Amino acid sequence: MNVASLLESARLRYGDRLAVSDASRSLNYSEYSARAEAVATALRSSGLGSSHRVAVLLHNSVEYAEVIFGIALAGLTAVHISYRLTPAEMAYLLENSNVGMIIYDK
């Protein structure tokens, strides 16, 4: 089973049940699947190919979950970067992980 089939199976089985939530919003499985697919579509249209990596620097949130599944659905590789790292550590990871895009929040 791959990520796409896992999310589709959950959407079909649990549609209206809670999938992800944070302090400010929540999504059911149908909404989560649609949002992750929207992220995947945007990533595909950006010109990134299957050999590309996407750096993710997000706090734990609904958006983080959407982005991680979206990256997987697009067939790309996520490079998780903790916001707890120092700027020098972040720079090292970014310089040495061959990322084609960075997704971050404020």
Please provide a written account of the structure:
The chain has 106 residues and is of the alpha/beta class. The chain has a single domain (3-104), classed as Rossmann fold (3-Layer(aba) Sandwich), CATH 3.40.50.980. Helices cover 48% and strands 21% of the residues. The chain has 4 helices and 5 strands. The chain has helices at residues 3-14, 29-45, 62-73, 87-96; strands at 18-21, 26-28, 53-57, 77-80, 99-104. A 3-stranded parallel beta sheet has the order 4-3-5, with helices on both faces. A two-stranded antiparallel ribbon has the order 1-2. Strand 1 (18-21) and strand 2 form a beta hairpin. Helix 1 packs antiparallel against helix 2 and helix 2 packs across helix 3. It is globular, with a radius of gyration of 14 Å. It starts with a helix and ends with a strand. The mean pLDDT is 94.
